[in-house]
Amino acid sequence: MRPGAFVSTVLQGTEQTAPDEGPIGGGRTTAAPEPDTLELIIPGRSIPLGFVRESEVVYLVGRDRGAQWPVELLRTGSASLGISNRRARGSVDLLVDLAEKDRVLDAFRRKYGSRRFERWYGNPARVLRVRLGPEPAALGGEDHYYDWLTAEFDNVADDYDRHILGNRINRLLRDRSLAELRRTFEQAGHLLEIGCGSGMETLPLLREGREIFCVDISERMLDVVREKARREGFGERLRTERLPAALIGQLLRVLGPGAFDGAYSTYGALNCEADLAPIPPALHGLLGPGKRFVAGVYNRWCAFEVIGYSLTGQFRRAFGRAGRPVRVGSSRFCVDVFAHSPSAFERAFDPWFDREHVAAVPVLLPPSDLVGYAEKFGQGFDRLDHLDRALSTRWPFRLLGDHFLMTLRRNPRESPT
Known about the structure:
Layout: H1 2-5, H2 18-21, E1 38-42, E2 45-48, E3 52-54, E4 57-62, H3 69-76, E5 78-83, E6 86-94, H4 98-112, H5 114-120, E7 126-132, H6 141-156, H7 160-165, H8 168-184, E8 190-194, H9 202-207, E9 211-216, H10 219-232, E10 238-242, H11 249-255, E11 260-266, H12 279-286, E12 287-298, H13 303-311, H14 315-318, H15 342-349, E13 353-361, H16 371-375, H17 380-391, E14 403-410
Helix pairs in contact: 4-5, 11-12
């Protein structure tokens, strides 16, 4: 979730490198030869790619969001290249500044011509920058993961609404979570939202009179939410802070204990944390006794995937969520994420919170990356949605959804030591 829900959430398709490889990719002979060539060297193979070079900086374009090579570079933060038969290494980052991306894409257009540019690089998912130089320092760990996460969600912030609203299952997820938030926070006026994304739940709750403090790892996502609230005249009831979910304890030092009437985090931010341990005690402090926290979480066990992929022999995908982290390719997200079962998530919040309610979202209907199957139901979709809701709170169905919604009540005891 995004943090915004996944990461909040950006779909992954199957890998298709040909559109990214451009005029020298895949052994194609239809394009005019280039005066220089580039190969991306990754374990077990090399990939010919089109590129633009400016002194000691190389730019690469990944048009297809499902292509794996950009993810492999961003995960490690480094690249090994073969340029005009010479090996070079460099550090990798994702361009998110719109003006800089436009400048680089214009350079690709000038190099390859408008016709080939539109064919190979039009509407790209990612523009990567490789700074050539000495062997990059070993990357990894929490800081690098957060950098990658921030860049990915900054990169999709301006298009995130279309991603959500254009997918029937994503809309269903938001409808279910909003219904739970409205029910849970009917009398709550001051809420904390962890991982607001582009404000799919923020704006409806603001319209209903609540005050909301939003945190998100992406400043670009926060910009989107602030602009929406300003346009609708709710700006004075919205506060924002750029923070990952694991650092919400910083708010306790600034705002003091019991600052909020409730808190929620749906479909992203919590699944972008390798370690949930700092979050429950921080929320325990930020909420008053008896106040509630609603979590929408990417489930570790999804019945639709386990059964569907197993029947087609795709066992890696059937049990792909069991990994830690769940790698891009085994999930539909643009970054590695961490899935949780309902029981493990509940244990992580004990003894600070007690579970009140859990529901699968959805359990009979497919996940959002398989929305094509849902569309085949046609007018029967609404009937199946109704049945899905009826089963979503019953055992064992409530444990086997694509996501689950869990409502937890803050324990009235003092913070455990």
